[in-house]
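Input structure tokens:
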């Protein structure tokens, strides 16, 4: 009965319904973007392995956090590509496939929004952790400023005069920037809680299906 109803769609409803396929190039573009992230991951991994003997513990930690960040963004892309295509374009028909994602069996627009919000919070957490690792340089001249250039010149002059450990350091962070990043992360958490709470309220008011 359902098939016959679909076959009897009028031209205008059929055109409107078929317009969902315009999203296909978008999801294919996200697959290309994921390939770029794979290239970025491999490049950073080669850099980590080849320069491991010359890197400090903090530098290694920052590179590893960068790799984790790439992985989490890739996971987010998979969620958007697979879940979005399944929800808004066409069924993937993965029932019975051994690699079918567990969450895909009950995915809908609301579930997808909550999962995307949680993934964004995870990515924001990695960036915030990287910021906290570099927060030890707060108070030093900001890199690229005249003050940092003057400090580098002073350190070079001290080294020329035989002063040991005269290395110039600068900070890539500002106290205001750290504060805003922490605030934005907090807003992400509040937004995710709001989305989950709204979804819960909407689910509670949905009429029960017959037989349940």
């Amino acid at each position: 009965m359902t098939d016959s109803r679909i076959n009897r769609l009028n031209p205008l409803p059929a055109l409107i319904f078929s317009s969902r396929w315009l999203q296909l190039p978008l999801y294919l573009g996200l697959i290309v973007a994921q390939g770029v992230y794979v290239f970025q991951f491999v490049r950073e991994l080669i850099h980590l392995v080849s320069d491991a003997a010359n890197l400090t513990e903090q530098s290694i930690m920052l590179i590893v956090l960068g790799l984790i960040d790439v992985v989490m963004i890739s996971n987010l892309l998979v969620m958007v590509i697979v879940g979005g295509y399944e929800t808004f374009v066409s069924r993937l028909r993965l029932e019975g496939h051994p690699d079918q994602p567990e969450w895909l069996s009950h995915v809908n627009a609301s579930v997808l929004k909550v999962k995307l919000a949680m993934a964004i919070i995870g990515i924001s957490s990695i960036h915030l952790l990287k910021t906290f690792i570099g927060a030890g340089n707060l108070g030093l001249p900001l890199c690229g400023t005249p003050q940092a250039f003057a400090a580098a010149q002073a350190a070079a002059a001290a080294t020329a005069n035989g002063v040991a450990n005269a290395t110039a350091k600068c900070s890539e962070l500002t106290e205001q920037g750290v504060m805003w990043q922490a605030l934005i992360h907090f807003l992400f958490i509040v937004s995710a809680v709001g989305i989950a709470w709204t979804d819960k309220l909407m689910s509670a008011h949905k009429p029960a299906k017959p037989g349940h």
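The first helix runs from residue 2 to 7. The chain has a mean pLDDT of 79.
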